[in-house]
Amino acid sequence: MALETQADPVDLGFDPERLRRVDSYLARYVDRGLLAGTTMAISRDQQLAHVSHLGFRDREAGLPVDGNTQWRIYSMTKPVTSVAAMTLYEQGAFDLNDPISRWLPEFADMRVYAAGAGRAARTVPAVEPIRVWHLLTHTAGLTYGFHHAHAVDEMYREAGFEADVPPGMDLAGACRAWAELPLVHQPGTEWNYSVATDVLGRLVEVLSGQPLDEYFAKAVFDPLGMTDTAFWSDSEDLAALYVAAPDTGKAVPHPAVGQAATRPPTFLSGGGGLVSTAADYHRFTQMLLRRGELDGVRVLGPRTVDLMRANHLPGGADLEAVGRPLFSESPFAGTGFGLGFSVLLDPVAAKCLAPAGEYAWGGAASTAFWVDPVERITALFFTQLLPSSLHPIRQGLRQLVYQALI
To answer: What Pfam families does the entry give (predicted)?
Structure first.
């Protein structure tokens, strides 16, 4: 199933000439070899106003990007895991304030980093338990080893957790290992991008009694007709993965990491493990835009989606105020965080054209999406370049989409 333009952009409020600036912008990256290939899809009022495919899904093999291309979406998996968790919330499986140790006892009696390094680090007891909403908002005090910003990050790396998990470890084993490490901060007090959504995925497994891939299929993929989204793919439609060459900045293949998505994983990562297509993820964003329903099938209730896209950071603050100063998929100023995605609070502070209320996230291979309930817009961008911080593509695309809206 491939995406196709469904309406005249003019009828949807876009200036076609201005909209073409989106592709011109992306073509500059592709033509210079900084990106191998891209897909962009923009919709308004649930109709696709613009779909484009540029360059190659596998440049070295001469295979072009098309509507069937599969992409490693990495952290764009997180909103899927969050939606899956909230389907269980709607069934009464948990309350957002529940301590996760009720189902994951390894997270009882957590300790919080205070000072020192490595095994000599001094810790203090957590003042309160990690709660479900802490996982959904990255306020649990967990971290990522790849941050290189805190002593606990180093502890994660020493335990084998940097960009991945130790070989052969499953999700349950990873959670047990993370629970043995101290937290970066007291739960619920700060925002720190982390393995929290992977722990949430494990909670989904325990609450549902199913492996994460099976519950995703039952609760999200099958109802939405997302037939090409999974934790791995052996299809020739799977795009090659690239990194930037140190000397030229041009995209070069990274098969050592890219091959991980071509076989069934032991570790089902709710934080970053999915492969998907533009068409599939478009259906996911349309469900969100429609407040939980698509084509007569309801995945979530409208009040649940409204709660998810509200800012849940302590005191209603933005990431600039309560977020740890590290890499993430979003600018910090004027941006809050809901139950699974960033939430735009103040366009002036964020220095962007999008309206307050837009919610979004991205992935490590430079993919991105946003849902705008005010202007009724969804936008998707796919490519395969690690890491996503190399180029300012996401902010540029948001700027170009909104300047075309007249």
So the answer is: Beta-lactamase
